[in-house]
Design brief:
Layout (H helix, E strand, L loop, with lengths): L3 H7 L11 E8 L5 E8 L9 E7 L9 E13 L18 E12 H8 L7 H6 L7 E6 L2 H12 L4 H20 L18 H16 L7 H8 L3 H12 L3 H19 L4 H7 L5 H12 L9
């Protein structure tokens, strides 16, 4: 299963799942405002994800010029067509070139840009502290995409402006999106990460590296002990940090990725059950079949074309 969290994490690292064909990229630096990017992907079959947003607050006391605030969104349910007059398309369903999409948005705000909103303002709550980069810990926050945010994001996809007018329109919508998203911050104490070692960038990088190793070893299972050695943190920190950042255990994440890759190999590549079992490192077809059915509710042979 391609998880919304995976997509939101990957949005900052340009490592979106290779199964998602990129249809269109739009990138713009609105003068004096924000750098944003919209990437539209062909939604793969067997997609199970939901609309989500992520707020990323990066704070460095020693390097304040590197402080930033970022909003990321993963949206489904839209369509993309390379034909400019798609709405007037009279082609049959077989000839239509439109695609169901996963739309990934990222909006990067510098501390300099956000300063205008907090200059000469008494910092009365956590929202103000975040915009002023007075909150002393980096953190990520996942939040739902309400109808107001969804309307703004859809408007950014479909507006018909160009040139200076597009900059004005985009700037207005980005401010609106910033307002609705910062509202998602709660006032209760939420001091960054529960695992304090994640407040250090090197600690977070170790967890991201662990995830990358797991994906690289999709057909060659690795123990947690081996994994902890490769990323140079102890097993306890590795398990706790992985669960906090990715919202799942290392074992569940790895099993999920293996089964999703198995679905791809069976359905898209038409490989045999035996070949897929071997490629994913299972000791027997029966073990693979049992794991596959537990994850998908289907027998592997049911996905063969």
């Amino acid at each position: 299963m391609i998880q919304t969290l995976d997509i939101l994490q990957a949005a900052h690292r340009d490592t979106i799942d290779s199964r998602m064909d990129l249809l269109e990229v739009k990138e713009q630096q609105v003068p004096g405002s924000v750098h944003y990017m919209i990437r539209r992907y062909n939604a793969p079959q067997f997609l199970h994800t939901e609309d989500k947003g992520m707020l990323v607050y990066h704070y460095s006391k020693s390097q304040p010029d590197e402080n930033f605030f970022e909003l990321r969104f993963c949206i489904t349910g839209n369509k993309y067509c390379s034909e400019k007059n798609c709405m007037a398309c009279v082609a049959s369903a077989e000839q239509c070139k439109s695609h169901n999409t996963i739309d990934v948005f990222s909006f990067h705000f510098s501390s300099g840009f956000l300063y205008q909103f907090v200059h000469n303002v008494k910092l009365a709550n956590r929202k103000d502290e975040v915009l002023a980069f007075s909150h002393p810990y980096s953190f990520n926050k996942i939040f739902p995409v309400c109808s107001r945010k969804r309307m703004v994001l859809d408007a950014l996809l479909s507006n018909g402006f160009s040139g200076a007018l597009e900059n004005i329109y985009t700037n207005a919508k980005v401010h609106e999106l910033l307002l609705y998203s910062v509202e998602c911050l709660v006032e209760e104490k939420e001091e960054g990460f529960a695992c304090k070692f994640l407040e250090n960038e090197s600690g977070r990088d170790s967890i991201y590296k662990a995830r990358e190793i797991l994906l690289e070893r999709i057909g060659n299972p690795i123990t947690i002990k081996e994994l902890s050695r490769k990323v140079a943190i102890n097993e306890c920190y590795l398990k706790q940090g992985f669960k906090e950042i990715f919202g799942t255990t290392i074992f569940d994440f790895y099993q999920q990725q293996r089964m999703e890759h198995a679905k791809y190999l069976l359905y898209e590549k038409s490989l045999s059950v035996t070949d897929v079992s071997d490629l994913l490192g299972y000791s027997s077809i029966s073990h693979f079949s049992a794991a596959f059915k537990k994850h998908t509710g289907l027998k592997p042979c049911e996905l063969l074309k």
